[in-house]
Amino acid sequence: MITDSFDNKSPAIINPVKKENRIKVDACIITFSHQIEKAVVEKYAATEIAALWCATGKTPIYLIERNGHRFAFL
Q1: Which label site among 19, 49, 55, 71 has the fewest CB atoms less than 10 Å from its CB?
Q2: Are 58 and 14 spatial neighbours (Cβ–Cβ below 8 Å)?
Q3: Continuous segment of H or E residues that includes residue 17
Q4: CB 63 within 8 Å of CB 27
């Protein structure tokens, strides 16, 4: 079972920390469709605020503001 191999004695490999100057959002919306991404970016005033890089290339992260709320969208 996977819980039998959990190691809580070794130091963590990934230690996330909060950045003081980070962009704050109310929620994050993730889509796995480039067609949906393109449609949303065209319809709403989306600003690219960051990007993720992986084997398939760059994935932009956008900021969308609607009805007084801020959303990260990728």
Answers
A1: 55
A2: no
A3: none
A4: no
Of the candidates 34, 71, 41, which has an alpha carbon nearest to the alpha carbon of residue 56? 34
Tokens of 68: 């007084």
Burial of 62 (0-12, 13-18, 19+ CB in 10 A): buried
What is the token pair recorded at 1?
């079972």
The tens digit of pLDDT for each residue in 26-67 reads: 999 998 888 999 999 999 989 999 998 988 889 899 999 999
CB 61 within 8 A of CB 71: no
Which whole-number Å values give the CA distances from 47 to 13, 16, 17, in the listed order?
Answer: 32, 25, 24
Please give the model's pTM, rounded to 2 decimal places: 0.71
CA 47 to chain centroid: 14
